[in-house]
Amino acid sequence: MAALFPFTTDEANAVLRALKTVAMADGTFAIKEQSLLSASAELLGVEAAADAVPTITPEELAAALVDPERRLMALKACLVMGIVDGQVSPEEWRVLSAFRAELGVEESAMQVFHSLVQQHRQRTQYELQRQLGSPQAGTLYAAQGWQGVLNFFTEDLIALPKTRENSELAWRYRRIGLLPEGTLGRELWRYYRERQFAFAGELGGVPEALVHHDITHILAGYEGDLEGELETLAFIAGLRGEEPSSALFLVLLQHAVGARLGADNSLSFQPERILAARERGGGTTEDFTRRGDFWDVMDQPISLLLQRFGVPPR
Question: Can you tell which superkingdom this protein's organism belongs to (predicted)?
C-alpha cells in the first residue's frame, strides 16, 4: 500500500487521527463518517476501530507530517471527511483551517480540491440514484434491507433533483443500440442495458456528465466496481499529469456512501493495478476525458478511438 499512499505507519496513524478530529468537530460521529474512517484505516493499512481512534491537535499533526506533499495529501483527506455527510460545517471548517495553517498549506490549493470533492459527491449521489432505481436493486441491497438503506441515504435522495422525461434526448440514446457491434455507442448502450440503468433523458436518468464518466470507463477498459473506479481515477490522474493519491481518497466517498449496501464491504484491490492504470494514463496522448460531447464519435469503433486518442493497451 506504500506505493499508493507513501505514509509511514506513524504518519498513517496521525492521518487517521486527523480524520477523526474533523469528524468529531461538530460533536457527532455520523454513520457516514464512521464508514469513511473505517475505509480509510483499511486503505492506509492501519488496524483500528473507528470508535477507538483518538483525535489530534494541529501541532501534533504537523510534527508527525514533515513532507509538504504528504501534508497536502493528509489535508485533502480531511476535507473529504468534512464533506462526506453533506456540507462542511462551521466547526469542521475551523478544524480544517487550523490544520491548514499549522501544516503550511496555501488556502488556494484547498479551494480547488473542495470543488472537486463537491463534484464527486454529486456524481456519487446520482450513481446511488440509478442503482436504487434499477430492477436489480432488490437483490443488490437485500443483505441490509430497504429500511436500513433508506435510513442511511435519506438526505442524499432528498437532495437529488427530480428528473422528467426528455423524450428527444432519451430517444437519441436509445438509438445508439442500433449502431454496429464494437462502436462506442453500441458498447455504451450495452453498458446501460446490462445494468438496467435509465439513459439520460429517460425518467430517473442521470445527467450527461455521469454518462461521460461511464464512457471513460468503457474507453479505458476498467470495470464499474470499486477497483475499477480506483483504476479509472488513477488513469485520469496520469493522463492529466496530476498526483493521484488524493484523487483515490475521493473514491472512499463512494465506498462510504455504499458501505452498508452489501455484505462484502472489503477494500480488496491490488495496488499494482492502480499504479499500472496511472502509468497507462500518462502514456495516453489525448485527454478525451475533457471532451464535452462524444456524439461525433458514437459511431466509431472503439479500437479506432483508442488509436486516435493514443491509449496504450492494458
Answer: Bacteria
**Residue at grid coordinates 456512501:** 257
Domain boundaries, the chain: 9-105, 126-309
Across the strands, what pairs with 183? Answer: 301
252 with 39: CB under 8 angstroms? yes
**Nearest C-alpha neighbor of 207 from the set 135, 122, 118:** 122
pLDDT-derived band at 205, boundaries 50, 70, 90: confident
pLDDT higher at 48 or 109: 48
pLDDT tens digits along 268-311: 556 678 788 989 999 999 999 988 889 999 999 999 999 999 99
CA distance 186 to 271: 32
Environment class of residue 100 by beta-carbon count within 10 Å: exposed (0-12), middle (13-18) or buried (19+)? buried
Do 184 and 297 contact (CB within 8 A), yes or no? yes
Distance CA 200, CA 197 (A): 9
Length of the chain counted residue by residue? 314
Per-residue pLDDT at 220 exceeds 70? yes
Q: In this prediction, what percent of the chain has a pLDDT beyond 90? A: 34
CB distance 189 to 198 below 8 Å = no
Distance CA 160, CA 153 (A): 11
pLDDT at 152 over 60: no
Is the entire prediction scored with pTM above 0.70? no
CB crowding 195-214: b at 16 or more within 10 Å, else e = eebbbbbbebbbebebbbbb
Residue 18: which of 70, 87, 67, 86 has the closest Cα?
Answer: 70
